[in-house]
Design brief:
Layout lengths: L3 E4 L1 H13 L5 H16 L10 H10 L9 E5 L3 E5 L5 H19 L1 E10 L5 H9 L3 E9 L18 E8 L2 E9 L5 H10 L8 E2 L5 E2 L12 E2 L5 H19 L14 E9 L1 H4 L2 H16 L15 H13 L1 E4 H13 L4 H8 L3
Parallel strand pairs: 3-4
Antiparallel strand pairs: 1-12, 2-3, 4-11, 5-6, 5-11, 6-7, 8-9, 8-10
Helix pairs in contact: 1-2, 1-12, 3-11, 11-12
The protein binds nicotinamide-adenine-dinucleotide.
Nicotinamide-adenine-dinucleotide (NAD) binds next to strand 5, strand 6, strand 7 and helix 10.
Length: 359
């Protein structure tokens, strides 16, 4: 097992800015990409943090990720937008798509945004948080066009991606409720993190290349490939299919079915519904009732071994507060992979280490 570095937020930010500049990105893109990835680490989702940079580097060098690219409007029908991410950084085109949708939802009361061909848009919760900051409820169904990693319920091989679902609800004077998860038992990146740390994954998450249960993360990281299982058996599987139908076939125009597994790029299609609660009626009554319900469920007596009942979004906020204070843990293998990626981008790994305070 490799040692873990604890890197202060400001130092990690400087180091990751240096790495992302290696893509030839404009300064605003450097800040957007590094900021979004570090934010994923801050919220505790290392699977969608800076450890994605080596993958992005391979995708870029293959021509599957195009820096300094912006969304193209394919259809503009007011409260209905169809956008093409043109394989640009998801951190940029995702943000642009949400900004356009937010503006339209504020104008019309609601907006549906169909975003296709975005390179990896990272932690979907970031987009629900962007909408929530503007006072909007949002629902996101996302497909992943890359290597197959998740098996259908009852199936013995991988047929689609970890297709995330996310719902965000803003509440005045309170932090928003942000539900954001992969429809696989665990996010694929979590198997990479476990593999890099030399740790097993929990039982019931993974099958090997023969369709047998395994806890060895290698079956999701290096060939021969096994498959992740969906959460909640046929229920998570059903949601994953809906992500393909709406985020893929409808929003993106293509599903995981025809992905070229040899490519390192990760394309996301996202079907988003943005809604201004004020446009639907009495916001005060909605927020009062919603807050009362949250108080009600949180008052449930915690079971043995549980500190307190939480609602979605709370674990991420707690992690953000802790890691902002204490620094961000990055395991040694992941850090070395980032340094290797930096070198491939023509960035001096020694300088990245120095930025991070690791020399
Ligand atoms: N872009 C992509 O292609 C892609 C693909 C898959 C996943 N992802 C992202 O990966 C990230 C991780 O997904 P995951 O499935 O590993 O997440 P997860 O299993 O950690 O679940 C996270 C969700 O559960 C909530 N939660 C966690 N513990 C809780 C508790 N005790 N009580 C109440 N709620 C609780 C969190 O607030 C959050 O909403 C997500 O941000 C997702 O968007 C992205």
């Amino acid at each position: 097992m490799s040692s873990t570095h604890i890197i202060p937020l400001d130092r990690l930010t400087t180091a990751m800015h240096r790495v992302v500049r290696g893509f030839g990105s404009h300064e605003s893109e450097v800040r957007a990409v590094a900021g979004n990835l570090i934010e994923a680490n801050l919220t505790g989702h290392d699977s969608h943090g800076i450890g994605m940079l080596p993958r992005y580097t391979e995708a870029f060098l293959e021509g599957g990720l195009v820096p300094n690219t912006h969304v193209r409007t394919v259809l503009d029908a007011g409260a209905l937008l169809r956008l093409d991410g043109q394989a640009g950084f998801g951190q940029v085109v995702g943000q642009e798509a949400m900004s356009m949708g937010i503006e339209r939802a504020s104008q019309h009361g609601s907006c549906i945004v169909a975003l296709g061909n975005a390179h990896h848009i990272g932690r979907i919760g970031a987009w629900a948080e962007q909408a929530a900051q503007a006072g909007l409820i949002s629902i996101h169904l996302v497909n992943v066009v890359a290597r197959n990693v998740v098996a259908p319920f009852g199936g013995g091989d991988a047929r689609f991606g970890t297709n995330p679902v996310c719902i965000g609800v803003p509440l005045a004077g309170q932090p928003p409720v942000i539900l954001d998860f992969a429809t696989s038992m665990i996010a694929q990146g979590k198997t990479r993190v476990a593999h890099n740390k030399g740790e097993p994954v929990a039982p019931g998450c993974l099958i090997d290349d023969q369709g047998r249960d395994t806890q060895d993360p290698r079956y999701s990281v290096v060939p021969p490939w096994g498959a992740l299982l969906t959460f909640g058996a046929h229920k998570g599987y059903g949601l994953a299919v809906m992500c393909e139908l709406l985020g893929g076939a409808l929003a993106g125009g293509h599903t995981q079915r025809n992905a070229d597994a040899s490519k390192r790029r990760v394309l996301n299609g996202m079907f988003s519904v943005l809604l201004d609660p004020a446009a639907l009626g009495d916001t005060g009554a909605f927020e009062q009732e919603a807050q009362a319900f949250i108080d009600w469920v949180k008052a449930s007596p915690p079971r043995d071994g549980v500190e307190s009942v939480l609602v979605a979004g709370e674990p991420e906020r707690a992690s953000r507060a802790r890691r902002t204070m204490e620094g961000i843990p990055v395991d040694g293998t992941t850090w070395q992979e980032i340094l290797d990626a930096a070198a491939k981008l023509g960035v001096d790994p020694g300088a990245v280490n120095a930025d991070a305070g690791l020399v």
